[in-house]
Amino acid sequence: MKRALAFLFATATVGLAAWMVFPRSRPPEPAQSPAAASSAPAAAKPSPDAKGLHEARWYTSLADGEVHCQLCPNSCRLSDGQIGRCRARQNIGGKLYSLVYGKVAALHVDPIEKKPFFHVLPGKRAFSIGTTGCNLRCLFCQNWEISQLLPWETATTPLSPEDVVAAALRSRAEAIAFTYNEPTIFYEYMLDIAKLAKANGLKTLVISCGFIEPEPLRELLPHIDAYKVDFKAFSPEFYTHITSGQRDPILRTMKTIRESGTWLEIVNLLVTDQNDGEEEVRNLARWVKENLGDDVPLHFTRFHPMHKLSNLPATPIERVIRARQIAIEEGLKYVYTGNIPASPGDTTYSPKTGQPVIERRGYFVMRNTLVNGIAPDGEPIPGIWE
Ligand code: SF4
Questions:
Q1: Ligand 1: does its nearest atom lie under 6 Å from the Cβ of 84?
Q2: C-alpha distances in angstroms, 175 versus 13, 205, 235?
Q3: pLDDT recorded at residue 305
Q4: Low-confidence ranges of the chain (pLDDT < 50)
């Protein structure tokens, strides 16, 4: 354990993503279309027993040894030996177990801006971890080499919550981020780490697709400082066909986060000709303003060919810039662009005077004029600043 932790820690501190250096196999091609697969559990690989596994939460036992997982809207009903659609939870002998608790597949110390959070601890660092698995099947997934795998299909390192928090403190990061794959599916592990992290003075950040049921979300939120939702598109059809998920549960998640007081930022990846139309962008901006408020940061990021959409060209830069203009026209105060070099959309401006308040180049903060969250013109800028 000590050697494994030392390896991961050393890897993190020199700035290399640990999962990049692990040998790993390619994920199998799905046998079904994303839409057809949306309600089907992942292929079963019966585990001989539950020895060493952590019992999952948010499930009920059914007749005949079945279990019903209620952690996310996939709502899997699993017979003995079956694995959930997320590839992270398995029915073993009539109980549901997490297959990924304590099994870290990715670890890195990142700038918080890389998550991206632009209103959380500017210029600070996040000790970032992920496991394997995901409850969506996005055709453009950037981390498919871990998100679409079962835990035994790649190298993972066993780290207890205590190990993770100790390593984060040693790295001098100010926060722990749950990221890379979908944190919802390692819910129990995330919750245990988050409680321990808060007790040790660290901030906690979740980077999520938002596909989670409200009850487990409400239990998690008091232990989370900031939540970033990767909102895929305002079109329900895009969700069905491109992600195999559903849009409305994610709109509900964003409302629940906002009501809780946990800081929320939204990212919308604009995929070429799929969700980057002006009307769709305008509808999203209107929904955010009416349902969440005008001061929730909204980031539009540029798609690059990836995974099963590698046939598409990168999003034209002018469409990303236009999306930002549309959201500003609709009354949102903090609208950003991502994956565009040296863009005005990297900067935070005061809504009062339009003056730059925090200037960035990519993930790096070049100038920060905020004092206790107040801009030089006296305007309070919402966020977590210390
Ligand atoms: S968390 Fe996994 S097992 Fe549970 S409902 Fe969602 S996809 Fe199914």
A1: yes
A2: 14, 7, 33
A3: 92
A4: 1-40, 46
